[in-house]
Predict the structure.
Amino acid sequence: MASRPVEADGRDAPVPGRGHARELLYALAAIVAVTALYAAAASQAGRLPAASGLVGHGFGIAGSVLMLMTATLYSLRKLRSDARWGSTAAWLKFHMVTGLVGPYMVLLHTAGRFHGLAGLTMLLTVVVVASGLTGRYLYTRVPRSPETMPRRRAFALWHLVHLPLTWALFAAATVHVVAALYYATLQR
Ligand code: HEM
Ligand code: HEM
């Protein structure tokens, strides 16, 4: 029988290699649906919805909520090793889907404008997503055996990059949201 990877504490480790690219398919389906919604709104308005308008805000808020879920739910599930609400592998898949769809909605929110801190926040978002995809690529190639220690070390190093980038991203996003709401929305 093929053995399932087990972490040092005896728990099953996430196995993203299984059902390999399924999460990418889910993400793609959601992205197509979101694009259709956005295209309908744009054609009705006769232009790209502005970031500060109803549709633009909607996409920015929904995308940000998905990104927040990406950054928290999988970690929470990992902390609760005795939890019954879904396997860590399933939550990692969820992480990858919301980690792609959320940033895509936020990209639509920008309406193609990337000035100032908001632009920097978008750039950080793209970098985090790119590093996520890189991590997944490394991760699916980490069989749990002693001779792969260099690869496992590389993955630990990758964690050291991905996490601070996430914090920087949400710090910038918080400032952007507070400033945008204050200047572009409430001061009108
Ligand atoms: C990670 C999440 C987000 C990113 C990366 C992001 C990024 C951006 C970008 C690049 C712009 C265009 C700036 C320009 O005009 O060049 C923008 C505009 C704007 N964003 Fe966001 N945004 C995010 C979330 C949000 C959220 C959650 C809200 C509201 C609750 C929001 C409110 C606004 C508003 C009101 C504007 C228009 C600003 C103006 O017209 O001066 N954003 N955002
Ligand atoms: C908004 C975008 C994203 C944010 C904020 C984000 C954030 C994070 C955070 C905070 C962790 C650490 C979880 C932990 O160990 O407790 C993590 C891990 C990870 N992320 Fe992301 N991520 C994003 C997008 C993605 C994407 C698009 C992918 C791949 C398609 C991805 C793949 C991974 C992988 C493979 C791990 C490591 C899982 C593990 O070591 O257990 N992430 N991410």
